[in-house]
Amino acid sequence: MTETEKMLAGKIYDPSDKSLTARRARAHSLSRQYNETDETEEEKRKLILDELLPNRGEGAYLQGPLNFDYGLYFKTGRNFYANFNLTVLDCCPVTVGDNVFMGPNVSLMTPVHPFRWQDRNPKVKADGTVYDDEYAKPIVIGDNCWLASNVTVCGGVKIGEGCVIGAGSVVTRDIPENSLAAGNPCRVIRKISDADAIALKSELF
Q: What pLDDT, in 10s, does the model give residues 76-131?
């Protein structure tokens, strides 16, 4: 297996691999270029995203600034929206469904570092290259979800369809569909139901 194949399969891999290093550098450069544009430069932004995020769905909109480790392994459905400061470390696939909204400062973090410092600390190859042992776990976010501001989603998590994740949450475990969940660590508060329909919220009118 190549180091890229190991990474995407969730196996221990060498992040100093030349192909991975080159792609990260390109993704970081493209992220920076995007962040230097504004929303009036639609064609310029599209050309950058076509290379950085080739697997984004129709109608995807990213406010920026944004930061991606690879970009190639981030896939969205239709009508994806991300507010300011989206950060995605897509060392494993990050899959986002249709009509998903993300507030400011959302972070999607697939990497997992070893717990023991003896395994985690940097090492040096015979040629002097510094590397460390890393692995990652995928993230899946279902259709019609809203992640509020400052939400962090950790590797290995699946968020079911129709969920709302409250501001400041750190999602470390799966969230079942149609749940209102919040906290650190994030926990289900209750199910979202027809009783939450906006037409029933008289205080809003």
A: 999 999 999 999 999 999 999 999 999 999 999 999 999 999 999 999 999 989 98
DSSP structure class, residue 49? H
Tell me the H-state helices in 39-87. Answer: 42-52
- Looking up tokens 């697997």 gives 55
* pTM more than 0.90: yes
| Catalytic pick among 113, 137, 158, 187 | 113
Helix (H) or strand (E) holding 55, with range, is none
Report whether 30 contacts 52 (CB < 8 A): yes
| Annotation marks residue 113 as catalytic | yes
Q: What tokens appear for 65 in the block?
A: 């600034």
Task: For residue 13, give the DSSP letter.
Answer: B
- In angstroms, the Cα distances linking 189 to 9, 180, 194 are 33, 6, 16
